[in-house]
Amino acid sequence: METKELILKKALDMFAKSGYDSVSIRDIAKAVNIKESSIYYHFKNKQDILDSLVEKFESHMKELTDMLQASMSDSHNVNAFSWDWLREFYFEQYLFDTFCNQMMRFMMIEQFHNENMRMLYERYLFELPHKIQTQSFMMLSKLGILSEQQAIKVSNDFFASITMLTFKYLLNGKLTKTKKEAFSEETFTYINRMFQED
Q1: How would you class 136 by CB atoms within 10 Å of its CB: exposed for 0-12, middle for 13-18, buried for 19 or more?
Q2: pLDDT at residue number 77
Q3: Which of 153, 132, 149, 150 is nearest to 81 (CA)?
Q4: What pLDDT, on the 0 to 100 scale, is given for residue 7?
Q5: SS (HEC) of the chain
Q6: How far apart are CA 198 and CA 194, in angstroms?
Q7: Helices 128-142 and 148-165: crossing angle, nearest 10°?
Q8: Rounded to whole angstroms, how far apart are CA atoms 54 and 103?
Q9: Mean pLDDT per segment of 10 residues, for the chain of length 198 residues?
Q10: One of this protein's Pfam families, by short name (predicted)?
């Protein structure tokens, strides 16, 4: 891993545990095992590290959202929305992704101290996931699998459930394989139950 990426990784490790203000350039340099002056070769200051992390996260989210939109663009393709699709795009590349998970934890801490981070927290933990989930279930309505009313109800119920499970398993303590498996199992059990009720 290149030094610049290692600086970002170690900084995020610490930011996600202790918050931005509790971590110094000296702490980051020590974690990377380089001199403090070496950090300034790659970044202007600590704020530049934060800005780079946010830019990287937003770039990842745009790429992921674009892939999701492309997979949903064919309204006649019933395979475009599947549990494999949900697991691959929404779980593996977002919720279970180490970088994304740490950014979510960091945003949770910083929302109380930094207005920009609060807006990111609201956008990426609530607004964007709800929008994507609603679009996904509305696609099932277009395919005739659910009525529009059912799609809206299932989407809202699913969003509430998956948000609760995200906080219970993925943003609570260390992210482990066991927690990911429990999250997946409870999520798919809940989804199956929702469709059986409808």
Answers
A1: buried
A2: 53
A3: 132
A4: 98
A5: CCHHHHHHHHHHHHHHHHCCCCCCHHHHHHHHCCCHHHHHHHCCCHHHHHHHHHHHHHHHHHHHHHHHHHHHCCCCCHHHCCHHHHHHHHHHHHHCCHHHHHHHHHHHHHCCCCHHHHHHHHHHHHHHHHHHHHHHHHHHHHCCCCCHHHHHHHHHHHHHHHHHHHHHHHCCCCCCHHHHHHHHHHHHHHHHHHHHHC
A6: 6
A7: 150
A8: 8
A9: 94 96 97 96 97 97 84 57 71 93 96 95 93 82 82 88 94 94 90 69
A10: TetR_N
Tokens 């403090």 belong to which residue? 36
Is 187 in contact with 161 (CB distance < 8 Å)?
yes
Among 36, 45, 33, 46, residue whose Cα is nearest residue 6: 33
The C-alpha angle with vertex 164 and arms to 118 and 21, in degrees rounded to 5, equals 30
User: What is the spatial distance between Cα 13 and Cα 103, in angstroms, rounded to a whole number?
Assistant: 9
What pLDDT was estimated at residue 65? 85
- Cβ neighbors of 33 (< 8 A, separation 6 or more) are none
Per-domain residue ranges of the chain = 54-197
Residue pair 12/28 in contact by the 8 Å Cβ criterion = no
- CB 132, CB 41: distance < 8 Å: no
What pTM value is reported for the model? 0.88
pLDDT of residue 90: 82
